[in-house]
């Protein structure tokens, strides 16, 4: 058994790190099997040598974030524990540096994981960025934040958000309303992100002026888009032809971000995903970045990470024929 002492600059940082009902500290205690007590700005960690050391590094990372004004929540604690496990906790200070955008309610939007940070840097440095990763990694939300930031800085004149209107179980023709009513549900996540960044009133104003356009991918055909920040969401549901059509809409002074999850393709089995095809073809092309986010970049509920991991394990088992995947052999007549 060993003890490690950590000192914080202010008692407010300690309060932030402990969280509501000490839930953050309890998570660290349970993860490493240590006991953490505090007196004023001093924290004492008791446990096995290696466990106390890891818990200390995790707490130092959290105190660093608290000193930078970050609110410590469950997601940050989980992610920092993962960073300590991989020996990358020294990079946590980079997480609080760059604010991508300020929402309509005054909340700063920042990268919450190292993968998200690489994604945002790629968007700022490249004309075309392809973000591939599972649900909950912030691909669309951060892309919209980058678009709003570029628009506010007058780097672009328009924000164009688009999605393929792929039917996943329901038929569009059976849905009520006109064409716009039918495609609106597919574009709802894009509307929600814009409302959050701009506020409903400002969004409506820019929409009426033509500064913001939210439309199905089919509406992009035949256009050349200059001075625009263009986001193609759910790109895994584009066909090879649609992806080529979209990429060739790029005009002068424009930037494109393409997002998608190749594990959730709703295309017919005989169709090749345009996103998978683009990742293969455009890899290593100058001024095009391909960012691959993983389950460790998920910033939703902790259970989402476990669900994604479970599906990846099941898929791997099915491909490799590992035990647990029963095969049924039929006797020939």
- Write down the overall geometry: globular
- Which residue ranges are poorly predicted, with pLDDT under 50 across at least 5 consecutive positions? 324-329
How many DSSP H or I helices?
A: 11
Elements, N to C (H/E): EHHEEHHEEHEHEHHEEHEHEH
In total, the number of strands is: 11
- Measured as a percent range, the helix fraction is 40-55%
Query: What number is the mean pLDDT?
Result: 82
Features:
333 residues, alpha/beta, 6-stranded parallel sheet, 3-stranded antiparallel sheet
List the helices and strands and how they pair.
Blueprint: E1 2-7, H1 11-18, H2 23-32, E2 35-39, E3 42-47, H3 49-67, H4 74-86, E4 99-102, E5 108-110, H5 114-125, E6 128-132, H6 139-152, E7 158-163, H7 179-198, H8 200-209, E8 212-216, E9 228-232, H9 240-247, E10 255-260, H10 274-282, E11 288-292, H11 302-320
Helix pairs in contact: 1-3, 2-3, 2-4, 3-4, 5-6, 6-7, 7-8, 9-10
Describe this structure in words.
The protein has 333 residues and is of the alpha/beta class. Helix content is 43%, strand content 17%. It is built from eleven helices and eleven strands. It has helices at 11-18, 23-32, 49-67, 74-86, 114-125, 139-152, 179-198, 200-209, 240-247, 274-282, 302-320, and strands spanning 2-7, 35-39, 42-47, 99-102, 108-110, 128-132, 158-163, 212-216, 228-232, 255-260, 288-292. The strands form three sheets. It has a six-stranded parallel beta sheet, sandwiched between helices. A three-stranded antiparallel beta sheet has the order 1-3-2, covered by helices on one side. α6 (139-152) crosses α7, α7 packs across α8 (200-209) and α9 (240-247) packs across α10. The longest helix is centred in the middle third of the chain and has 20 residues, at 179-198. The protein starts with a strand and ends in a 13-residue tail after the last helix. The model is unreliable at 324-329 (pLDDT under 50).
């Amino acid at each position: 058994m060993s003890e490690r002492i950590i000192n914080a600059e202010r008692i407010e940082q300690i309060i932030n790190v402990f969280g509501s009902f000490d839930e953050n500290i309890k998570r660290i205690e349970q993860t490493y099997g240590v006991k953490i007590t505090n007196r004023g700005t001093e924290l004492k960690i008791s446990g096995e040598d290696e466990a106390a050391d890891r818990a200390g590094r995790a707490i130092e990372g959290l105190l660093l974030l608290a000193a930078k004004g970050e609110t410590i929540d469950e997601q940050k604690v989980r992610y920092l524990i993962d960073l300590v496990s991989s020996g990358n906790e020294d990079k946590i200070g980079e997480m609080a540096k760059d604010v991508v955008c300020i929402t309509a309610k005054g909340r700063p939007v920042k990268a919450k994981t190292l993968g998200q940070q690489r994604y945002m840097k790629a968007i700022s440095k490249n004309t075309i960025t392809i973000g591939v990763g599972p649900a909950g990694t912030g691909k669309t939300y951060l892309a919209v934040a980058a678009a709003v930031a570029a628009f506010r800085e007058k780097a672009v004149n328009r924000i164009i958000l688009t999605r393929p209107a792929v039917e996943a179980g329901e038929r569009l023709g059976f849905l009520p309303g006109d064409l716009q009513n039918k495609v609106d549900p597919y574009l709802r996540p894009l509307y929600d992100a814009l409302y959050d960044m701009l506020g409903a009133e400002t969004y409506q104003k820019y929409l009426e002026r033509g500064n913001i356009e939210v439309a199905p991918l089919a509406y992009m055909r035949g256009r050349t888009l200059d001075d625009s920040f263009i986001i193609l969401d759910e790109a895994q549901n584009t066909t090879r032809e649609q992806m080529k059509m979209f990429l060739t809409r790029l005009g002068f002074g424009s930037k494109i971000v393409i997002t998608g999850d190749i594990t959730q393709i709703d295309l017919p089995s005989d169709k090749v995903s345009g996103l998978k095809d683009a990742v293969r073809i455009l890899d290593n092309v100058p001024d095009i970045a391909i960012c691959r986010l993983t389950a460790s970049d998920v910033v939703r509920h902790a259970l989402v990470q476990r669900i994604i991991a479970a599906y990846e394990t099941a898929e791997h088992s099915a491909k490799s024929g590992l035990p647990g995947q029963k095969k049924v052999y039929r006797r020939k007549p």
